Structure formats: C-alpha cells, structure tokens
Amino acid sequence: MAFQILLNFFIAVVWMFMNSSLTPSTFVIGYIIGLLMIIMTRRYFRDRLYIWRIWSAIKLTLIFLKELILSNISVLMLVIKPDLSTVQPMIFAMPTDLEHDWEITLLSSLITLTPGTIVLHVSDDQRTLYIHAIDVNDVDEAIDSIKNTFEKAIMEVRRG
Amino acid sequence: MDLIADSIIIALVVVGIIFTIITVVGIIRLPDVYMRAHAASKSATLGVMSLLLGVFFHFWWNEGHFSISLVLGIAFLFITSPIGGHLMSRAAYMSGVKPTELTVGDDLKIAIDKQRAELAKNTHEE
Questions:
Q1: Secondary structure (DSSP) of A68-127
Q2: Interface residue of B32, B108, B110 to substitute, partner A, most A CBs within 10 Å
Q3: Which residue, of A14, A153, B70, B118, has the fewest CB within 10 Å?
C-alpha cells in the first residue's frame, strides 16, 4: 500500500515538472492522473488498490466515533442511576484472531471506548483479551457482536 | 450564519462540560477502581474533546484563526486516554486490588493463578 501511495506522489511530482509549474493545483491534477494510471495498471500490483484500504480506515474511524458517543451515553445513564447496587460487573476472557501488535493495540483501544467495557490484560500469547464489563445483564451478549464488527473492520483494513 | 456558528460552539462546550461533570460524579459514586476507570476513560475523553472542538471552532469562525495545535491536541487525547485507562486498571489489578463484591465472574484471576502455579512449579523443580 505504501508503495502505491509513493508511486502516486512520484507521478504527481513528475507531472509538476513536465508542466514546469510547481503549484498545489498542478500537484492535485498530477495526483489524479497518477491515480488513474495506477487503476489502469492495478493487475501488476500484489496488494489491492490503496484507496479501498483508506476507505475501510475511514469506516473504522466512523465506527469509533459512533461507539464513543454511545458509550458516553451509557456511562451517563449508569452514573445517574439512583441505585448502584444492582449493577453486576464482570471480568471475562475474549479470544481474538488478530495477529499483529498494532491490530491488538487498536482493538483494545476500541474496546476501551465501547459501551461498558475496558481491557484489563492481554495474555502473553496475544490470543486472549481480558475485559472488564460494567454490567453483565445487557452487555455480555451485545459485546460479542460489537467485537465481531470491530475485529472485522480491523481485518478489512489489514487485508492487503 | 453567526447564529448557527454560535449555537454549534455553545452546544459543543455544553456537552463537554456535562460529560466532565459526569466523570467527576462517576468517580465519586462508583464502587471500585475498575468501574471508576470506565467513567474516567470514556467521559473525560469525550468531554475534553468536545470542549477543545468548541474552542477550535470559536477561534476559526469568530476570530479567523485556524489553530492546528488544537486539532493535534484532540488527536493525541484520542490516542492516549484509552491507553491510560487500560494501564491504570491493569496496574491496579496486578498489584492485587480486589474488584467490588458485586462482581459476578473473574476469568483473569483464574488465568493468573494458573500462571503463578506453573511458575512456582518450575522454580521448585530447578
């Protein structure tokens, strides 16, 4: 992916030199031309076209913002609840399929900002995350689906 | 136009203040350190973030000054505050702070006990 972006920049710079006008608008035109060239020659690259990867990263950011707002509303509801003795916190283990370090860091940051969950510990073999959930009743099942969306979105970003 | 800009700024600042207050109330009311970490790591992030965003929009639209360092501040806050919440609760757990009695299950304790038993066995054999 980085190679495709670098190539695109290089084509844009070459376009600027060919026009002998070093302005930002020439760069943008050259970048678009380079993008078209990369789209036309995409079967020579091993990875998929880099704009899809950027698009899935943007989707992940949007999910992140949505979950942040939802989690804040749920914390607000919990904090202003009159009787706190009915909540049932729990620490549970969740297996994960992610392999690279940055993916696991990203997943645990996302989990920490989702409604009602905080990552306490990552096991030494990086296969299990230990998560503190604030209320078992409504969270425990909903969590798994959230995890699936997050893990899937991160895998989508990684897919080369 | 000014009215719309001002209402967006005021809404952002009010939301920020509300969530900062929620953080404080949560830290006082919730029973143990892990549940307090929930309030501290989530509400404080959104609270400070929307305050900074309101300040950013105010200086951009009303004063004509585009402050890129405020945007950087928002980004840094986003990256660092969940890690901070995670590290503090992990340090608390590893140094033996018990969760509140309301806690219904504890998978991490089982895992740690198993690891410690293995470690003790290995050192014993040596």
A1: HHHHHHHHHHHHT-S-GGG---EEEEEE----SHHHHHHHHHHHHTSTTEEEEEE-TTSS
A2: B108
A3: B118
Residues paired with residue A133 on neighbouring β-strands, in sequence order: A90, A117
The CA dihedral of B26, B31, B36, B42, to the nearest 10 degrees, is -60
**pTM value > 0.95:** no
CA-based max dimension of chain A: 72
On chain B, the residues whose CB falls within 8 A of the CB of A116 are 38
**Side-chain-side CA neighbours of residue B29 (13 Å):** 20
Cα–Cα distance list, A59 to A51, A75, A102, A107, B43 (Å): 12, 24, 18, 15, 23
What count of Cα atoms within 13 Å lies in the side-chain half-sphere of residue A13? Answer: 6
Q: What is the block-wise mean pLDDT of chain A (160 residues), using blocks of 10 residues? A: 87 92 90 92 83 87 84 83 77 80 85 81 82 74 72 79
CA distance B44 to B82: 10
**Secondary structure (3-state) at A91:** strand
Check: CB of residue A107 under 8 Å from CB of residue A113: no
Token pair of A29 as six digits? 């035109």
pLDDT number for residue A33: 93
Q: Is B82 on the interface with A (CB under 8 A)?
A: yes
Chain A residues close to B37, C-beta within 8 Å: 118, 132
Radius of gyration of chain A (CA): 22
How large is the greatest C-alpha to C-alpha distance in chain B, in angstroms? 77
Interface TM-score (ipTM) > 0.95: no
Out of B45, B83, B105, whose CB is closest to A91? B105
Instruction: Name which of A157, A154, A159, A156 is nearest A96 in CA terms.
Output: A154
